[in-house]
Structure formats: C-alpha cells, structure tokens
C-alpha cells in the first residue's frame, strides 16, 4: 500500500490521515490479467480504478482495422478506461495486458463515495485529473504540430522508461508512425 499511497497522495497533498485511511481501505479488489488478455474491452463499462503492482498494459482503439495505441500502463501507476469510469458509459477503447499483470482496484461506487465524503479528497482528485488533462493536451499538440522526429524526442524527454518497458511497435503506434520509421530514428539517435 505504500506505493499506492505515494501515487495517490504525492508530497504536498492535503487530505487528512482519516481520509487517506478510508480511501485506502476500499482498495480491496485483487486482479490478475494474463498476457494479451483484457483488463477492459470496448463496449464494457469501466467500474473499477486500478493501481498496477506488476506488469504492463496498453490502451488502444481500432480505426479502419488499425490498432492505435493511445496510452500505456506500468507499475506504480493508475489505470482505467477513464471516460467510461467517469461517465459510467461503455468504454470506447480496450486495455490489454502485454505481460502478466497484477493490479489492485477500487470500485467506482466506493471511490466516488470516498471522495464525495471528503472535500480534501475531492480537491486532490480534481488536481490529479487536471494534471492528467494537461498531459493529454500536450500529447495532442505533439501529434498535430510536431514532425515525427520531434514527437520522438519529446516522448524520450518526458518518458524514457517507456522504451525499456514496451515493444517498439506500440510506441510507434503511440507516436503515429510506422515501426520501421521509429527503428530508423532510434538508430540515428544512437549513432
């Protein structure tokens, strides 16, 4: 629980100890997802928020029979089909384990009950979602305004660990380029 505490409540966070303990006590759902199995599939409601203990996952959607990677999950991060989790509507994308994955989760109901009972937790959740939104906007700007080499450089600056955790074909999809283009650019970076 120490890792989940540091992710949910980084330094500078203000929830009270009782708020934190109440929320942490609800993270009781243990989940194992085998390699290439799905944590969530398109069309299913996301009823849980998960903390990744071990393993890697990709978030992707399908467009014109092409899988497009839109995000990643790895140890010590939270994951869910966020739009589905928030809206309680079916997910528009899939979350698939790329390795055997171990997670711990909280139900949507328990999560929202906890944060609605505490102004501090609600504020903290809002701040976390604002930071996530800023990251998503930065990614959208990267995709529409930068050339492929600049997108690669920016991802490498922000998240170099992704290149150690995920197959390059998924990173290429995330950057909206072919695996061959990514391989060529990575070779040039190394030389």
How would you portray this structure in words?
Helix 4 packs across helix 5 and helix 8 packs across helix 9. It is built from nine helices and eight strands. It has a domain of 116 residues: Jelly Rolls (Sandwich), CATH 2.60.120.10. The protein has a four-stranded antiparallel beta sheet with strand order 1-8-3-6. It has a four-stranded antiparallel beta sheet with strand order 2-7-4-5. The longest helix is centred in the C-terminal third of the chain and has 27 residues. By secondary structure, the protein is of the alpha+beta class. The protein starts with a helix and ends with a helix. The model has no long low-confidence stretch (mean pLDDT 93).
Content of β-strand: 15-25%
Total number of strands = 8
CATH topology of the domain at 2-117: Jelly Rolls
Q: Describe the largest sheet.
A: 4 strands, antiparallel
CATH superfamily of the domain at 2-117, by name, is Jelly Rolls
Strand numbers in spatial order across the main sheet = 1-8-3-6
> Structural class, from helix and strand content?
alpha+beta
General shape: globular
CATH architecture of the domain at 2-117: Sandwich
CATH class identity of the domain at 2-117: Mainly Beta
CA(first)-CA(last) distance: 42 Å
H/E topology pattern: HHEEEEEEHEEHHHHHH
Alpha carbon gyration radius: 18 Å
What is the typical, i.e. mean, pLDDT? 93
Number of helices: 9
Poorly predicted parts: none
| Helix content range | 40-55%
